[in-house]
Amino acid sequence: MKHVRVLGILAGAALMLFAASPVCGQDEDYDPEKRLAELGIELPTPPSPVANYVNGVQTGNLIFLAGKGPKRPDGTEIHGKLGADLTIEEGYEAARITAINQLSVLKAMLGDLSRVVRVVKVLGMVNSDPDFVDQPAVINGFSDLIVEVFGDRGRHARAAVGMTSLPRGQAVEIELVVEVAHEAEVRSPTGGMPLEMTYFGTAGWRISDGRVVVLVDPYLSRLKYGGGGHPEDDRPAFARTDLAWSDTALIDSHITEADFILCTHGHFDHLGDVPYIARKTGAKVIGHETAIAILRAYGIPDDQLYTVKGGEDYQFDDFSVRVMPGLHSALGEKHYYDSRRYDDRTDLEAPLRIEQFIEGGSLNFLARFDRHTVLAMGSMNFIEREFEGLEPDILLAGINGSRLGLYDYDRRLLTATGFPPVVIPTHWDNFRFPYGSSQQANIERNLLPFIETARTISPGSTVITPVHLEPIRIR
Question: What's the pTM?
Fold first, then answer.
């Protein structure tokens, strides 16, 4: 599968990110990021919110971006009133800088700007002297750049209004609403049945080639447990000593079938929902002895369970999987180590407490589908020699913050896996936040630095930022 070529947010030829929609179908050359490069524009790190709000909120297929101002890359801002302190030309430039800042927020949220289907609405607020009436000419600085980048998709409804003052005396503040595709597609001219991948959060995935449905660490309940929950999350809080609970209604709304479940380790944010999903779907479950012992305690029959330790390479109908021994993330400033294990002699009684979902060792999986191989990681650590020579088409790369405590992690991972054509970050989010909550802090802390590093280490790879519960299709 190594023949796949890539064109995307970091890459070179034939595959490209594609938003499946009637608008997108009108322009096969649609590539906003290429257009930015042609304009000589490099997007900065997204500005952080300055109060109790987030940079953007997605609801359905619309993204509403909070107001941003003309902050330059060096941190300074353009201040002053139009008609008194600033000319129209200076205001136009302030609006253009604001457009660049909003594009940086949008890219951080989407991973690739080609997922924008349409720019819907712009609200431009201009810090104005009472006699100034040319606000539209100022906000044209924003609108013109948006149309330059997105073409016809960038033509938008707009309001340009005067304000007696704006925060910190900035010249303009501009809000943006865009429509985005529900499905991001990576495609090549070779055609064939696409591989559809949906991110559940943490290390959880649904992967299907139309013949077989494989789940990896499917954890959807996202309980607020152990601290670190979202401040606006009013769901019940759980302690680690509480009985484990699965949000079965939420699971039912997103998982209807599965043929296989691959379990990388036994922690609750990986295995916690598997007992319910395995019982519901009848899927074959592949995991180590501890995970299998937990599933037996929940009454999953033996004919569904496959105990592995790493080194196995199993062929099934329409699917094969190689199991590699792994290492867990270096938690607790590298002090984490848990040697506990369960086996068929361990006395476990379901339902277990959350704290009884122990690691039990860690695994990684090379899942082989009809046209693609996917290397799935369940944590931010690995044994280098186990990955060498695998050369997957798609790497689900664990990239949460604990990887920064490991020597040259990003380079070693991308090199050992043969610089995969497609790299999709996994386990980067806060799994205690319910779906729909902003993950902006994790995007800025985990995703953006990894993308920048990957741009240098593996320029031939496309890095796709997954969005919770939104399918990605790869041909």
Answer: 0.67
